[in-house]
Amino acid sequence: MKKVLAALTLLSIIFLIPSCEILQQAQQLGTLAKCDFRLQSVNQLSLAGINVQNIHKLSDLSLLDAGRLTTAVATGNFPLDFTLNIEAKNPNPADAGLTKMDWILLIDNIEMTRGVVDQKVTIPANNGISVIPMKMHVDLKQALSGKGADAIINFGLNLAGAGNKPTRFTMKLQPTINIANFPITYPGYITVGTDFSGLK
Prior knowledge:
By secondary structure, this protein is of the alpha+beta class. The protein has helices at 2-32, 63-75, 140-143, 149-155, and strands spanning 36-47, 50-51, 79-90, 96-98, 100-107, 110-117, 121-123, 128-139, 169-179, 182-185, 190-192, 197-198. It is built from 4 helices and 12 strands, in the order H-E-E-H-E-E-E-E-E-E-H-H-E-E-E-E. The radius of gyration is 23 Å and the shape is elongated. Mean pLDDT is 81; it is low at 1-17.
């Protein structure tokens, strides 16, 4: 009889552990739904390899760098590279976690590129904040197909506002969390700007 009871107790523990994990992950999913996201800053801005972090117009560049940009946009790809920092704030009493996040990047409401953050991110409880740095690479000639060279160059300038605020940027995010090893993805995207706005 004691062996039977011991076996039943062991089985109960075996089944209880995954149930507790599922419950915890389900709680994190609900917690994540109340988190706030915003675009914190943009830095390391470069056009065709030229630092344009604080450049507002073409005349702010040296003649050499301005010439390099003009040549680059006329002869080949015109890469825009930067790091966009997304700030996530968790006002809840429990940690929030995500395992993946699909994203779409827009500048001036024009879609530039899209991709996936494929890493686990934990957002601490009680107004804890996590910063998610995202390295971006955009071929402006492709994204702005049909635009002239001057328009493409000017588009890639003045992207960092005061305090490096990404005022011209918008992100659409779609978080995913694993529950019992099954990915649960939010239906649709949330739109994130420079102000906090929770998942809806």
